[in-house]
Specification:
alpha+beta, 4 strands, Alpha-Beta Plaits, 64% helix, four-stranded antiparallel sheet, 2 domains
């Protein structure tokens, strides 16, 4: 009963962290979009890009168009990606809509970097890419083409940034119909490339995995703790010390990089004298990690 209660608290903490990180990602995206890109007439991709074009053409606030379009896309996400992804995506859409409205209210006036559109493009795209990457890393998204990218990535081994890049080229190109300025369209292409690059960097950083080899006389206790939290599988390898000629139990563990500190704390709490080897791995596929995808 106590173990079950502990696990539920830890699960709740992980879920809360997901929602907080998604909200932080949306805050980053809002800064990039509402502070640097939109005021300088630089188009971003996806539904925000469509919302920007509608705003320049009609004056309708971007948050309204963004929210309405995402209502339809979320119905598709609910069917294909599941309830958990959809709930967190709804959270992302709502928080982004709210942040954009407030940021536009408090940053009214002359645009930042009005005479330096390239710097506005680079800084805005970096904020947007970081926001989307954080949201996707914690099982959420900003909606729009992120939903399409997540669906494609579920079945095919194509990076999220590349899918978003392909989907958004048409949207940015169409901004010429409103802006009548190819220079702004080119800045939109640059924004899209930087955003896609930053998304991949953030995603790859969060998904990087490590492997542990742990040698300890208390390997059973260590293995049970790792099984409990962070709930990673443990393989026991029967080994023998060459110099000591002593039979030892060696644990083999694969985990996410962000879980390394948790595992080290567990080991230190049980056996401070344990021998531990940690190394990075290129990819891990299977339950609890990435799915094997074939083109």
């Amino acid at each position: 009963m106590k173990t079950s209660l502990t696990l539920s608290k830890k699960t709740l903490a992980r879920e809360l962290k997901d929602y907080l990180m998604i909200a932080f990602g949306m805050f980053c995206y809002s800064i990039g979009w509402a502070v640097f890109l939109l005021p300088n007439s630089i188009t971003t991709g996806g539904v925000p890009g469509i919302s920007s074009i509608v705003f320049w053409a009609t004056g309708i606030p971007v948050q309204y168009t963004y929210f309405i379009i995402n209502v339809f896309l979320l119905a598709l996400a609910l069917k294909i990606l599941g309830f958990n992804f959809c709930i967190k995506t709804i959270w992302g859409v709502v928080t982004l809509t709210t942040f954009v409205a407030y940021i536009q209210h408090f940053t009214g006036g002359p645009p930042f970097l009005h005479n330096q559109p390239f710097m506005a493009c680079v800084i805005g795209a970096s904020f947007c890419g970081t926001g989307v990457g954080l949201a996707l890393s914690y099982n959420g998204s900003t909606g729009g083409t992120d939903i399409i990218a997540a669906i494609v990535n579920k079945y095919r081994d194509i990076t999220l940034g590349r899918v978003i890049l392909i989907c958004d080229l048409i949207i940015i190109s169409s901004s010429y119909l409103v802006l009548r300025n190819w220079e702004k369209v080119i800045y939109g292409y640059v924004t899209l490339y930087i955003c896609a690059f930053v998304i991949d960097q953030v995603i790859n950083l969060s998904r990087s995995s490590v492997q542990f080899f742990i040698i300890s006389d208390k390997y059973i206790e260590i293995g049970k703790e790792i099984n409990t939290f962070p709930r990673r599988g443990v393989t026991v390898i029967n080994a023998k010390g060459f110099y000591s000629d002593k039979e030892v139990g060696m644990l083999f563990v694969l985990a996410k990089k962000r879980e390394s500190d948790i595992i080290f704390h567990l080991i230190k709490g049980i056996d401070p004298n344990a021998f531990v080897s940690q190394s990075a791995v290129i990819g891990v596929y299977g339950e609890g990690f990435d799915r094997i995808k074939v083109k």
